[in-house]
Amino acid sequence: MLKIIFLFLMSGGIPVAMAMAGASLIYILMTNSSPPFVVIHRMVSGIDSFPLLAVPFFILAGNLMNNAGITNRIYNYALALVGWLKGGLGHVNVVGSVVFAGMSGTAIADAAGLGTIEVKAMTDHGYSKEFAVGVTAASATLGPIIPPSLPFVIYGMMANVSIGALFLAGILPGVLMALLMMLTVAYFAHKNGWGGDVKFNGGKLAKAFFETAVVIGWPLLLWVLIGKLDFPPQLTVAVALAALFVADKVFNFQAVLPIMTPVLLIGGMTTGIFTPTEGAIAACVWSMVLGFVWYRTINFKMFVKVCLDTVETTATVLFIVAAASIFGWMLTATGVTTDIAAWVLDFTQEAWVFLLLANLLMLFVGCFLEPTAAITILVPILVPIAMKLGIDPVHFGLVMVLNLMIGLLHPPMGMVLFVLARVAKLSVERTTMAILPWLFPLLGSLIIITYVPSLVLWLPKMFY
Which stretches does DSSP call E strand in 301-419? Predict the structure, then answer.
């Protein structure tokens, strides 16, 4: 009955969070199985969680980076690195999204932030709007895969899984997805006879490679120093950051300091300097230092607007989590999750068959539910089954998030689809058709990530 009430409310156009909470309350009132007050109690307890404190801070850090003029720096860095290749701006789109994913944590922020710049630049250089929108939509899915990631925080809290391990698990799959997307761009460039969009410039390319080397080498050097020197890790990091600012002043880097956001976050979590929640606060402080002090692109009025936007987004996310908490509790209390688990385990005891069925289910659900709501509903149902079949919950978390990100590209509820339709001023129908070819690299990535768990778990096992 609970599922029927929920589907009835959803079909009436009621927002998913209201439908979950409303269905739970109506079921309790109809069956008199619990006091109505339990709805409020379970909703409050559902968000009374320390890891969830990371949510508003990650949102704030992403909003600060979005409004600090960082997107232009990322675009110029990617242009120098790969803009001279055939289909140059398509490659720039993907590389820019890889970098921006390390700051935004959400696909929608990626699509709205870099998407505005990239779609206009590509159409100005003669690319069709459909191609520009397609590659932008596909690359936006990298936002929650490459850390930091808001969906990983929600999944980690719901499934009781290390958020740091989830962040590390997303790095190699994110690189794989980016490579497959760039191969797709190369295919279209070869098919249509496209050349590069900027002239090859050895100096700019060398500088871009130097910036990349700094981003990779700086944390490795810091890691060695922390192990070798008899200094507190915090002092060593502070001195290294000061040296990094000096280097930025000397060499006038385009994107080294912004790219350091995920490096600092993951490095601090894996070395034990701070927890994920403290890491989210550190990301906010880093964003404010860049925006207010170093680049001076944020003023107090803009900061107030960013904070208000963060409050609005955080309230929406946490209300969805709260509503899903009571709905998930009701599913468990009424035995729905147990019945589903028993049915699945009776149907198959093979992990690969379960993963296939789970992928199909999550792709379908992702087309209708916002990722946060989908995660909070699906975790209590699917994660226990996955663990019984010996599937690592970190691996399964990455599979779940990627499925739901692909769902964001499709009607009727695909938010990335609607954002890019508005940015490019295309109809939803044309935008949907533009995205279809890009499902091949995305689904190819999904298959590899699903059935090659070592790709996902190699980095987490090194540190956890």
Answer: none
Cβ burial of 101 (10 Å; 0-12, 13-18, 19+) is: buried
Return the exposure string of 216-255: e unless at least 16 CB atoms fall within 10 Å of the residue's CB, then b.
eebbeebeeebeeeeeebeebbeeebeebeeebeeeebbb
Residue 15 lies in a domain: no
Q: How much is the pTM?
A: 0.83
- In the chain, the N- to C-terminal Cα span, in Å, equals 42
CA 337/CA 343 separation, integer angstroms: 10
Range of the domain at 355: 52-463
Q: How many domains does the chain have?
A: 1
Asked if the bond preceding 148 is cis, omega within 30° of 0, the reply is yes
Whole-number Å distance between alpha carbons of 424 and 136: 11
3-state SS class at 462: helix
- pLDDT tens per residue across span 401-451: 999 888 888 766 677 777 778 777 778 788 888 888 998 999 999 999 999
Residue 362 counted as domain residue: yes
Q: Is residue 4 included in any domain, yes or no? A: no
CB count, 10 Å around CB of 90? Answer: 30
Strands (E), 53-135: none
Question: Does residue 19 form part of some domain?
Answer: no
